[in-house]
């Protein structure tokens, strides 16, 4: 009996793919470089370890399906979390992280947390996946399950790297504001507005750090990088600032090598990178697991679509553990940052249609 499978829907697609490994379980890869030349679905944690290995699901069996309607369930979960306790823990973590920025150890660092919600008894992860597909047509939706990682669901707006043959694309994404539900015409309008009319200096600054990092890292790989002007990107009920980078990747360059250079970007980690990476692993009160790692089809039918695992949760029976984080700069304030993590977690809460008790 095999347990490793994934269901995923690429942004803007009307069908989803089911990929199953029929022989054995997902393969554990020792390093990013081992992704070079491979095919399948990649599931990578924030930091590779024995507990959270880098995984590749082999596409032994695949199926393309239409997203059917699943609107008959009104509420899929209920909430009885201790919000005061979560808030206190977040404040402690925030002070620890923020003081390091004030001391000058980091220019930027991302602080994350998690929160548990309870699914109703008769709810299956597949049903939540289909709801996510319907609510978020522009995001990457995936439900991944392996014995090593457990079961995760995501609705993420952030591309890590995608492309085929020599044509590749990545983004620098950061800055967050809640806007509520908007229709497709408002999405277009929002994208076309001058970012200086939409965003304050702190958010622009925060995103520039990510763009500078991506530009610099890509230059080590390829001489020709095409960088667009920063724009506003709508992600569910939130907006972010995005810079698109298009570049050529030589077939010998190796996607695994590129990933090693990029991951984790300052959108989920910090600057300087190695110091921030270590500080997060040593000091964040929760374990990130696969949150803020990356996922997606690798070299499948000739294309790669890897996304940063954000707006996600781990599903264990009825327990749904939601994850979110946000970039801190010296001017960050604890209440604003807390609300930002709440707003990001609401992406998954909407899929669960939570009833408060
Ligand atoms: C870290 C998350 O999101 C990332 C951090 C952002 C920010 O700090 O403003 C915005 C988008 C993402 O790049 C998350 O969703 O948990």
UniProtKB/TrEMBL annotation:
Residue ranges of coiled coil: none
Record's catalysed reaction(s): chorismate = isochorismate
Enzyme Commission code(s) on record: 5.4.4.2
Domain of life the protein comes from: Bacteria
Keywords assigned: Isomerase
Taxonomic source organism: Xylanibacter rarus
Transmembrane segments: none
Domain spans labelled Chorismate-utilising enzyme C-terminal: 87-344
NCBIfam families the record matches: isochor_syn
The name this protein goes by in its record: isochorismate synthase
Family: Belongs to the isochorismate synthase family.
Gene3D superfamilies: Anthranilate synthase (3.60.120.10)
InterPro entries assigned: ADC_synthase, Chorismate_C, IsoChor_synthase
MF terms in GO: isochorismate synthase activity
């Amino acid at each position: 009996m095999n347990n490793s499978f994934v269901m995923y829907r690429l942004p803007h697609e009307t069908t989803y793919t089911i990929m199953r490994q029929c022989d054995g379980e997902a393969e554990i890869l020792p390093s990013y470089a081992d992704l070079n030349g491979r095919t399948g679905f990649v599931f990578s944690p924030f930091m590779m370890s024995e507990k959270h290995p880098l995984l590749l699901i082999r596409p032994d069996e695949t199926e393309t399906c239409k997203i059917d309607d699943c609107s008959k369930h009104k509420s899929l979960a209920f909430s009885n979390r201790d919000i005061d306790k979560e808030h206190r823990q977040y404040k402690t973590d925030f002070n620890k992280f923020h003081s390091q920025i004030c001391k000058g150890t980091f220019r930027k660092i991302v602080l994350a947390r998690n929160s548990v919600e309870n699914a109703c008894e008769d709810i299956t992860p597949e049903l939540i996946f289909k709801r996510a597909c319907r609510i978020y047509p522009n995001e990457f939706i995936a439900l991944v399950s392996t014995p090593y990682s457990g079961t995760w669901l995501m609705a993420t707006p952030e591309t890590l790297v995608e492309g085929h043959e020599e044509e590749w694309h990545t983004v620098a994404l950061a800055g967050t504001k809640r806007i509520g539900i908007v229709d497709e015409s408002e999405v277009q309008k929002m994208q076309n507005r001058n970012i200086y009319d939409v965003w304050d200096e702190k958010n622009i600054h925060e995103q520039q750090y990510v763009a500078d990092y991506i530009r610099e890292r890509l230059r080590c790989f390829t001489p020709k990088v095409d960088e667009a002007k920063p724009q506003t990107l709508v992600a569910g009920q939130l907006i972010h600032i995005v810079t698109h980078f298009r570049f050529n990747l030589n077939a010998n360059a190796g996607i695994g090598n590129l990933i090693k250079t990029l991951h984790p970007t300052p959108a989920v980690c910090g600057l300087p990178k190695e110091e921030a990476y270590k500080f997060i692993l040593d000091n964040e009160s929760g374990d990130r697991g696969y949150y803020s790692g990356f996922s997606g089809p690798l070299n499948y039918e000739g294309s790669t679509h890897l996304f940063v695992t954000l707006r996600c949760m781990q599903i264990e029976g009825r327990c749904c553990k939601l994850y979110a984080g946000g970039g801190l700069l010296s001017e960050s304030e604890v209440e604003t940052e807390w609300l930002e993590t709440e707003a990001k977690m609401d992406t998954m809460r909407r899929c669960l249609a939570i009833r408060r008790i």
